[in-house]
Please model this.
Amino acid sequence: MHKVYHRIEQIAGNVIMVRAEGVASGELAQVVGTLGVSLAQVIRLERDKVSLQVFAGSRGISTDGQVRFLGHKMDVSFTEALLGRVFDGSGQPRDNGPALDENRIAIGGPSVNPAKRIIPRKMVRTGIPMIDIFNSLVESQKLPIFAAAGEPYNELLARIALQAEVDIIILGGMGLKHDDYLQFRDTLEENGALSRSILFVHTAADPTVECQMVPDISLAVAEQFALQNKRVLVLLTDMTSFADALKEIAITMEQIPSNRGYPGDLYSQLASRYEKAVDFEGAGSITILAVTTMPGDDVTHPVPDNTGYITEGQFYLRNGRIEPFGSLSRLKQQVNGKTRDDHRAVMTTMIQLYASYKETLEKQSMGFRMSAWDNKLLIYGERFEKEMMDLTVNISLESALDLGWRIMADCFEPEETGVSSKLIEQFWPAKAGTAGKETPDEAAADETQAAEKAE
Model:
């Protein structure tokens, strides 16, 4: 039996403080108020002063309320029955389905021992050319998607959830609008992907403390599935909401603020979640893609700034497309040399040509005269953006590489691309680069026919 405390010393926002002994950080408690029983979690210990964050808020709780500590930390049920289900940030059903209580596992545990990890070497195919060709996603990688407000980052995550070649998708939503949550659920259900997905969703109307728990619950479940030899992709949106929840609680606790009011341990809080990405030796893997919104499109904001030091690259989402400049997958070299012989050549050449296209756009905007080469680049750039960068494009890696060759062949001569002769001979499309042109023999034959007609 756990002791019940009948006096609450202080109430500040959704945080209450009681005097108790033998309590652990992160331990759960039940708080009885006039509106019923609420769940709370220990967030700070200072000698016998115990601060708890009340999940449902402190409304209805008075100083004579009761607090009963449960003797265990936050946990979640792990079972195959999780698949196809939607839960809130505390692991309770959001889809009106039955609650799951068997096989409880603790959340928020330590990262996997590095000795148990292996070097990432397998590609996660997504069907999106700007990822598969130019910044390949690798199993056990941790990558953020940096985006300004208003960019279609949730739509991008939904596309990846549908198309990624993995066994299980776990979506952790933080601070989502209700419409965004419904869109995720309906998109997965309509396309037959909900059966391999698990959703842990915290909406903007839910308690702040649940926002903090979404990554931990998502990653704890992912780790158990990975140990069962499953390839798990964890999609988190958005980590800035998670950081704002940390900030709100830190302010309530009167902690000394750091940059822009965020807590001083923001880096550690983010790293402890991202470092859950792992490829187990002899088992499965956890890959993390996490949206990080940038207030004011400012990459120096504390959340994206700290994230960049933790993760293995980043995707920049701008104007509804994954921007090729600035986006980086630091592990892509581990896999893109094992896909097809032309993968790296197509990746490098197309980006170089696209950079030249951007320079040509600047010349055009300043009124400079366009050369024949500039005109070729303008055609190439428009096709590259429409056929490769558009996020609605859904083709396999091999088809995307073939498409890249066709775009280059339709716009340039082989020698203008700088690709090696060996690859040109192997992959350059037949009769490409000569569309609308006559060969010397054809031109001579036409001249002969014209002369005969004249006579």
